[in-house]
Amino acid sequence: MDYITIALPKGKLFARSIELLQSVGYEADNVTEDSRRLVITNEASKVRFIITKTVDLPTYVEYGAADIGIIGKDVLLEEQKNVYELLDLKFGKCRLMLAVPEQMRRPNLTDYAHLRVATKYPNCARSYFQSLGIQTEIIKLNGSIELAPMVGLSELIVDIVETGRTLKENRLVEVASIYTATARLIANRASFKLKFDRLEKLVGDLRVIVEGENV
Amino acid sequence: MVKKKFLQIPYGTKDILPGEARAKREIETGIINNFAVWGYDEVATPTFEYLEIFSDEGAGLLAESFKFFDRSNQALILRSDMTKPIARMVATRLDDGRLNRISYLANIFRYEEAQAGRQCEFSQAGIELMGAAEPAADAEVLALAVSSLQVAGLQDFTVSLGHSDFIAGLLEEAGLNAAQAEDLKDIVLSHNMVGLETLLSTLDIKSDLQALFRRLLLLHGDLGMLRELKKTVGNDKSRMALENLEEIYALAEEYGVAGFISFDLGLIRNFDYYTGMVFEVYTPGMGFPICGGGRYDKMMEAFGKSCPATGFAAGIDRIMLVLARRDKLQTQTEWDYYVAWREGRLPQAIVRVMELRAAGKKTKLAVRPSDAEAAEKERERNFCRKLVFIE
Q1: I want to staple B308 with a disulfide (CB 3.0 to 4.6 A). Which of A107, A172, B230, B297 is the partner?
Q2: Domain A4-92+182-214 falls under CATH 3.40.190.10
């Protein structure tokens, strides 16, 4: 039997991903986020785990370097990779939204046209504004997005919020919600076909757990 | 100072180096000869065509193509597929009353995100069987696809086989409007199972059909699965599609290729023109299909003819990549003879070289005089099996 290679993202989705996989029999001894080993093999259940940077995870799966992976829908929407989305795992909920400094708040969304938008999610931001017919200048940053309006780099930000505390601390207000995202199980196109029986069972088992918890 | 552009090639293209090009040619020759063994005659069509020929293709594909204008401002396209040009050629130049078995080797151009096995310019080998609607034609195409991959040196691959009418029948039965059907097709194409659930929950579809749609992307399996499925299908179009697949499969068994086939009823290909069986071939370690095809009975109508047709294309670059990864691609060319000569003996060396070449030996001739010891080193450096030294 071939190995199934599972890609796991570093960061906030990591711990729960391990837990979920463990509960369906994909034991991962010694798999920790700060593990020095990047590839961990479980000979008994023919599983191999690889730990990747969040934004790179869909790429590993798209190329088939990993058969499946767990990743936030926000990353999938931004990266636009050619992977199969198998299951909503319903954890790691977060929201992509548009925020402005309190004093910049305006009555209509269209009032924000032609302004500068700082974001880690340029593709999502661009398609959101395009769907509204609003032109903006997108500035791609890699972190601390809320800093941009404070120092005059941008007027608006498009960013992920979980609790809203960062916004409040930086005197930003949300003016529109773009989408809500949760963790997803994704698969490589070829792997899904070539290792179908095992993957179908995995999806079925995970579905029972995920949906059981949400009843 | 070398100009910057002199060192670069355009995005998504590549140079094929000595050894690679030979290996590629050998694979192509093997496949095209195999096509001939099966009764398919090779054709070539223009590298670029009028844009209109491709304009009814799926919007996504058209957006991915390379387009330009000629001197009289006619819109042209670098062929993004060979099936369309061959349909045009058959409709306009060949007698479409009879069966046409056609093969080709061609470079195709599509603006793709370049990555391993995906280039903007890539090489395809394929066949089209035009003028037959019978399952016999589809089975022949499937069997030839398997045989061609085997000829290329591949053994472990799976043919995912589906039918465009199966999904079309379900969509009709559900009574979806064009926009809803389009959304659903997009989701099935990208295998977005989460999106499928979400979309289904917004549509008003009766519960048993709803359940079938929910399972659509998981309808993988063997003949047993297909027969079970036939019992649960509520419309004639889908049922006939399954019967058609059964007939094709029965013939594939006779061809001895059924073992490669796995049914996948959620399979949709990224071309709008398919009307019958569709298939894709997958192999371990390659994230994309290495071969794909199907039946397209309506395409010739655009050219004013009615002619059922079926065919497939295989990606030569992807096959080479798979072989290379399995250490089965010989990219170091080996030569038969290296002919070297001592000072003043070049005329005799030329005579000897020409004898060897006349005998069909791949032979390299030294351009400068040398001694026997230096010649032996040169032989090795030139990857020649034997040394001939003219004293």
Answers
A1: B297
A2: yes
Query: What residues have CB less than 8 Å from A189, skipping those under 6 apart?
Result: A82, A83, A84, B191, B282, B287, B288, B289
Query: What was the ipTM of the complex prediction?
Result: 0.79
Which of B192, B215, B325 to mutate: most A Cβ within 10 Å? B192
- Structural domains of chain B ordered from first start: 11-155+283-333 (3.30.930.10), 158-267 (no CATH), 335-390 (3.40.50.800)
CA distances B204 to A74, A184, B177, B200, B207, Å, are 29, 26, 11, 8, 9
Tokens of B214: 């929910």
Q: What is the CATH number of domain A94-179?
A: 3.40.190.10
Q: What is the mean pLDDT of chain A?
A: 90
Chain A CB contacts of B262 below 8 Å:
193, 196
Structure confidence by residue, pLDDT tens digits, A61-72: 998 899 999 999
Interface of B with A (CB under 8 A): 115-116, 158, 160, 190-195, 197, 217-218, 220, 262, 264, 282-289
Q: What are phi and psi of B357, to 5 degrees?
A: -65, -40
What is the model's pLDDT at position B57?
A: 62
Chain A: closest CA distance from residue B286 (Å): 7
The Cα B258–Cα B248 span in angstroms is: 10
pLDDT digits (tens, 9 = 90+) for A111-152: 888 899 999 999 999 999 999 999 999 999 998 999 999 999
- Domain spans of chain A? 4-92+182-214, 94-179
The verdict on a CB contact (< 8 Å) between A184 and B115 is no
CB contact under 8 A, B284 and A194: yes
Q: Which of B30, B6, B52 is nearest to B303 (CA)?
A: B52
Tell me the pLDDT tens digit for each residue of B82-123: 999 999 999 889 876 789 999 999 999 998 765 656 789 999
